[in-house]
Amino acid sequence: SFPLHGRYKRQTSRPPYSIDLEQDETYIPPGETLKDLIEHSRSAGSGSGSGLPLLVQRTIAKQIQMVKQIGKGRYGEVWMGRWRGERVAVKVFFTTEEESWFRETEIYQTFLMRHDNILGFIAADIKGTGSWTQLYLITDYHENGSLYDYLKSNTLDVSALLKLAYSSISGLCHLHTEIYGTQGKPAIAHRDLKSKNILVKKNGFCCIADLGLAVKFNSDTNEVDIPPNLRVGTKRYMPPEVLDEALNTSTFQSFIMADMYSFGLILWEVVRRCTSGGVVEEHQLPYHDLVPTDPSYEDMREVVCIKKQRPSIANHWSSDECLRQMGKLMSECWAHNPACRLTALRVKKTLAKMLESQDIKL
């Protein structure tokens, strides 16, 4: 039912979501927490590492009470809900966004996908009658909200700055890394990295969210599995090669390096909020001073590709060793030439060294 894109394969093996929507619920014993359920499914070896069994997911989805809307995006809405008293986040997709729902569900259910710095997936479900459907994605709830929200209302010290940066890159590194073996994990590129798609946990660490645009790479077949949806990321965070349509979609590495450019911009947003020598800058989005609030492709292309401008690095950063190193790091992530950008692993190692030299324990 979907046009095939060149040699990219469209996965025809859709999960069995078409089963009778009104079937019996799986009995979940009282006292079982979400954490218990997930731990059991990981240790039981029943598709371990790739999420809860489908009927358990459907049961949880049916039993959630929606409490209040906490966000809205182009794909739908995010609600805070409760399951047996535990708070969860529920992403409700517009019916037109079935592709994003499907892709995000599929990525979260990828074997070995669970990681401290990737948003914890709980369940996905479709509810509906013939003419009306609702697509749900249920995940862990983080009351601090997105990194964007967090930076708007909090200033950072060096320790908080390094924790936010290190945990974000750890999540990205896990996504980007292929794990080999019969039950391996494909390499995954995010394609829509921005401060609104990273969440801040209670402990001051981050996790990466919003995987509806992700691409997977299967090294056995050498195929890049690109979702056929039309959403292509956020203009403000797009690398030059995407803005001038020069990205080589047949090599997976292109998508990885595009993520690294966006990550450089996120680092810039975070570092500005770090107090150094009594100085701290207000939170701004990258290129806030160079393009309009809702920039067009043309606005962005002009600044990023033609003028080759990048967010400005404040003078006072040079007098603080940590901020100076961060400035160097971000400019090596947003290099014009994708081949010159740092990899996620390289950034992770550099930040780990910085944490060590500051004597910050993770």
Automatic annotation (TrEMBL):
Residues 64-355 form the Protein kinase domain. The keyword Methyltransferase does not apply. Residues 1-22 are annotated as: Disordered. Its cofactor is Mn(2+); Mg(2+). GO terms for cellular component: plasma membrane; receptor complex. Its EC number is 2.7.11.30. One of its GO terms (molecular function) is transmembrane receptor protein serine/threonine kinase activity. Residues 1-12 have a biased composition (Basic residues). It is an enzyme of class 2 (transferase). It holds the Pfam family PK_Tyr_Ser-Thr. It is a single-pass type I membrane protein. One of its GO terms (biological process) is cellular response to growth factor stimulus. Residues 32-63 form the GS domain. InterPro entries: GS_dom, Kinase-like_dom_sf, Prot_kinase_dom, Protein_kinase_ATP_BS, Ser-Thr/Tyr_kinase_cat_dom, Ser/Thr_kinase_AS, TGFB_receptor. Keywords: ATP-binding, Kinase, Magnesium, Manganese, Membrane, Metal-binding, Nucleotide-binding, Receptor, Serine/threonine-protein kinase, Signal, Transferase, Transmembrane, Transmembrane helix. Belongs to the protein kinase superfamily. TKL Ser/Thr protein kinase family. TGFB receptor subfamily. This is receptor protein serine/threonine kinase.
